[in-house]
Amino acid sequence: MTDKYCVIGNPIAHSKSPDIHPVYARQTGQDLVYERCLAPLDGFAATVQRLVAEGYRGANVTLPFKIEAAGVCTRLEERARAAGAVNTLSFDRGEIVGDNTDGPGLVADITRNAGREIRGKRVLLLGAGGAARGALLPIIQQEPCEIVIANRTVATADALARDFGRHGVPIRASGFAEVDGGFDIVINATSGSLAGELPPVPAAVFGPGSLALDMMYGSQPTVFMEFAARHGAVVRDGLGMLVEQAAEAFAIWRGERPDTAEVFGMLRP
Ligand code: ATR
User: Fold this and answer.
1) Cys-Cys crosslink for 85: which of 42, 66, 177, 264, Cβ 3.0 to 4.6 Å?
2) Superfamily covering domain 103-240
């Protein structure tokens, strides 16, 4: 019988996941279907129960349900607990297991696709919301020498630095303008790019060859990517992270990690 998966969100029409997973399934010879699932804003939990009852094997979760998704799980993987959010559900013999592959996808994009080691490097994380929180544990597990979290609201960055400060990697919180020194890797996890707004960090955060990654993607580079490129950084958008988080989810469900190059090429010909 063909195994059923879907991505749950509201809205959901724009999601690229239904284009990605069938390619991974073909590559790995797996028999599955992957659909879009629009859940009512007040009906996420009921939607999950329906999918379980209909025999679905798992689901991805996207906006605005990632935090709520953690609440419907009977078990949470450590990285989902640390992220406080779930983007991958597995329905397994009565259990609803929640995981979060966004951070691992980001790390995979940096280390595999951009070919950058995080170990021993200085990392600047811009933003302290859900996207930044989800990235932190997987970045820490790569053992950078230091992480600075800069945010418009410094108190939120402070809270995040405290929450993740016990893992052995020094983490400091800062306002944007006060960030000092250069960084090997600068990650924009603010939602500012959606509105064309640049986190006002000093240009000196970028050195020649710094990697600047915006979690957003679109047909044009974001203002953050343009700013970083003007100051010598190598830039990436969030398409690689998208493709890699999907591969991580696929591996959780199917036990095999697909090669992401074909999908990357398909989404950005
Ligand atoms: P997400 O899930 O995308 O991370 P979020 O949890 O609402 O969304 O967090 C949004 C992040 O983007 C926050 O760090 C927010 O800063 P504040 O904590 O000060 O609100 C940041 N952000 C949003 N708009 C921004 C802008 N125009 N400039 C800089 N930072 C912005």
Assistant:
1) 66
2) NAD(P)-binding Rossmann-like Domain (3.40.50.720)
